[in-house]
Amino acid sequence: MYKSEQLAQNLKLLIENGTWKVHSKLPSLREQVQRSGFSLITVMNAYQELESQGLIYSKEKSGYFVAEQVTTQIPQTHAVVALNPKIEINSLVFKYLKSIQSKHISPLGSAFPDSQLLYPPKLIQIMGQLSRNRHSYDQTTNLPPGNLELRKLIAQRYCMQGIPTDADDIVITSGGLEALNLSLQAITQPGDYILLQQTIFYGAWQAAERLGLKVITLPEHPQHGFDIEAFEQVIQTYPIKVCWFMLNAHNPIGFTVSDEIKYKIAQLLHEHQIHLIEDDVYEELFYGSQKPLPMKYFDQQNLVLHCSSFSKTLGSGFRMGWVYAGKFSEHIQHLQLMSTISANALIQNALVEFLSHHHYEKHLRMLRRALEKNKKQFFQYLKQHLPEGCKVYNYPSGYFLWIQLPDKVSSMQVYEQLIQQQVGVAPSPLFNVLPSHQHFIRMNCSFEWTEQIQHAVDQFVKIIDNRLLKPST
Ligand SMILES: Cc1ncc(COP(=O)(O)O)c(C=O)c1O
């Protein structure tokens, strides 16, 4: 064992047995050198190790402090978790995405709605027409910040929700993920603190990992989805630079946070001058009569960068998204010009035609109806057939069901066994890195209920039944 590991272990004991209380200050590096007799570099390594385990946290120019204890249960309130900044979720996500890629795999693990419901014929027709005209490929008018007409149309959609928006606030990107990644890159430096929801789209973990950020997570609230009191505590405790939240049709769980809570979040962001990257790529997939408001609506100070895309409504194959960047527009354009250069010109032009002739609204109405119907069918079937001890979380938006398995059933093992039988599902370690959250499954329910789909769902149910009969492994 290295000296630093030995020292880290001794210090960990002091935290765990309560000798050092939560939020109390640790001895400074120099004091610790004197106390322990170890070198400065050993002490620094030991402190960094404890920080990476989430046991302590650092404040600029103030030193190190004892962090809150790691929570063990998903909807537990008032618990905050500091996580290892060296989270390695990338390889798991890569392996998972590869495993469900084959067209022979039943796509219940896919993040995209059934492609039968996307790629509307009218849009394909417009693209066909435009594709015969060389001007449609002209890159110059479509370079960052993107096609002006398209940005105006997107700005109009914000205005319709009561969010004053100018075309210059918008930057068109290659999908929502680019919008999110560029926004995060524009705001942070390596080593900055980012606050994520404890269960969140794996793209957020990947981005934090890539940019070398320190991740703090906020547990979900059992009723409201978002725990405003815990949020207030975290931002008072940690020097959070930016938050990355999904508050509408949350992926993977599905909840939408109320306007009241969004308003309070905005007030706290304002008070503490913290930026928010809002992932709202499911904003259009609500079942009710009103589109939920984004955080951008409550943002008085341009602290929120709202990111969305056409991937879940028209098709992810178009790779078309945007960010309401406001004052960050220039910076984001710089970053874009250094990486992907711009979003596809032909598709930007086609979207201008499609949106300006009101085809989008009609398509969205059909899409929402189909998703609601299909998800209902899955829900009813699962409710009837899943064994006791399973719980299905069902919310009126999107196309995912979040399924809680009995504690002793590992979602990773269920996924691995199912993939052998050519069925994909998304296990919770893709979304939540805590060992206590290994028994959830995200199921894509956007598909029409066919014999084939029923067979895939039956295989899922059978594996859980069998695992419950076996002693835990
Ligand atoms: C929550 C969430 N955010 C962002 C993205 C990325 O969207 P896009 O395909 O537009 O890049 C996805 C895609 O699955 C997602 O589920």
From TrEMBL:
Residues 1-69 form the HTH gntR-type domain. In the C-terminal section; belongs to the class-I pyridoxal-phosphate-dependent aminotransferase family. The keyword DNA-binding applies. It holds the Pfam family GntR. It comes from the Bacteria. Keywords: DNA-binding, Pyridoxal phosphate, Transcription, Transcription regulation. Gene3D superfamilies: Aspartate Aminotransferase, domain 1, Type I PLP-dependent aspartate aminotransferase-like (Major domain), Winged helix-like DNA-binding domain superfamily/Winged helix DNA-binding domain. GO terms for molecular function: DNA binding; DNA-binding transcription factor activity; pyridoxal phosphate binding. It comes from Acinetobacter beijerinckii CIP 110307. This is HTH gntR-type domain-containing protein. CDD domains: AAT_like (cd00609), WHTH_GntR (cd07377).
